């Protein structure tokens, strides 16, 4: 605990004064660019890996970066975070970020390890679709490869769940929101991103495809309905 308190004291003494104007601007309002939904894993640090400043990212962390579909029993805090970021704050991007060596995904592959963790076991039922995709379509692969594939499939599955949330669906339809699936590689610091049209993950760069290409709704005039 002393390490954390020492860290705060250094922040207050050295870092805060350098960003005093930024914090003053942020004191009464926020206007983040993106909602960043990622795993609770301590090795995934969204602000660090995107070099973001306070106020840039609205972050929601859940074990296994799970996003329960709208209307499902345990959606609670995640649904509220999505609604607030997308509807109230008007973020333009939602990033669902999984990662390598994910303990939650490992547990999804080996549910017997969750027998003493009933809450986690129930929560990770949201990964059932991804588990099924991997176990039924990739037979005979070693555990490490299955774990990687599951973490990728889980990102894709959680993006599908994300689309069921009303605030997301409405803004997607207006072409005002883009969804992104990222995979953070802890050992190398790389990020790969999901290209929905190609159906695969590729290195993140400017011009990388998104998980949901922008679209527009049709605009009817009164006469069109006749
Ligand atoms: Zn994880």
Based on Cα principal axes, name the global outline.
globular
- Would you tell me the overall average pLDDT? 92
Q: What separation lies between the terminal Cα atoms?
A: 69 Å
Tell how many strands the DSSP assignment holds: 6
Order of helices and strands: HHEHEHEHHHHHEEE
Q: Widest sheet: strand order?
A: 2-1-3-4-5-6
- Which distinct ligands sit in these coordinates? zinc ion
CATH class wording: Alpha Beta
* Weakly predicted, low-confidence segments: none
Write the CATH fold name. Beta-carbonic Anhydrase, Chain A
The largest sheet is:
6 strands, mixed
Overall tally of domains: 1
The CATH architecture term is 3-Layer(aba) Sandwich
Helix-and-strand structural type = alpha/beta
Tell me about this structure.
The protein has 226 residues and is an alpha/beta fold. The protein has a single domain, classed as Carbonic anhydrase (Beta-carbonic Anhydrase, Chain A, 3-Layer(aba) Sandwich). The chain is built from 9 helices and 6 strands, in the order ααβαβαβαααααβββ. Strands 2-1-3-4-5-6 form a 6-stranded mixed beta sheet, with helices on one face. The structure holds zinc ion. Zinc ion is lined by residues 39, 41, 64, 99, 102-104.
């Amino acid at each position: 605990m002393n390490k954390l308190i020492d860290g705060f004291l250094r922040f207050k003494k050295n870092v805060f004064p350098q960003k005093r104007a930024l914090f003053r601007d942020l004191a009464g309002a926020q206007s983040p660019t993106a909602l960043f939904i990622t795993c609770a894993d301590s090795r995934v640090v969204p602000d660090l890996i995107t070099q973001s400043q306070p106020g840039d990212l609205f972050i929601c962390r859940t074990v296994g970066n799970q996003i329960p579909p709208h209307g499902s029993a345990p959606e609670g805090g995640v649904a509220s975070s999505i609604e607030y970021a997308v509807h109230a704050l008007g973020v333009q991007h939602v990033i669902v970020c999984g990662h390598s060596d994910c303990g939650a995904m490992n547990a999804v592959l080996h549910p017997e390890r969750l027998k003493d963790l009933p809450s986690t076991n129930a929560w990770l039922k949201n990964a059932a679709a991804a588990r099924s995709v991997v176990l039924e379509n990739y037979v005979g692969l070693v555990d490490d490869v299955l774990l990687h594939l599951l973490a990728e499939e889980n990102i894709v599955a959680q993006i599908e769940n994300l689309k069921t949330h009303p605030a997301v669906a409405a803004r997607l339809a207006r072409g005002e929101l883009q969804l992104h699936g990222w995979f953070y590689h802890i050992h190398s610091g790389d990020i790969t991103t999901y290209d929905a049209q190609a159906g695969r993950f590729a290195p993140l760069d400017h011009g990388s495809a998104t998980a949901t290409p922008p679209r527009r709704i049709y605009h009817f005039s009164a006469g069109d309905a006749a």
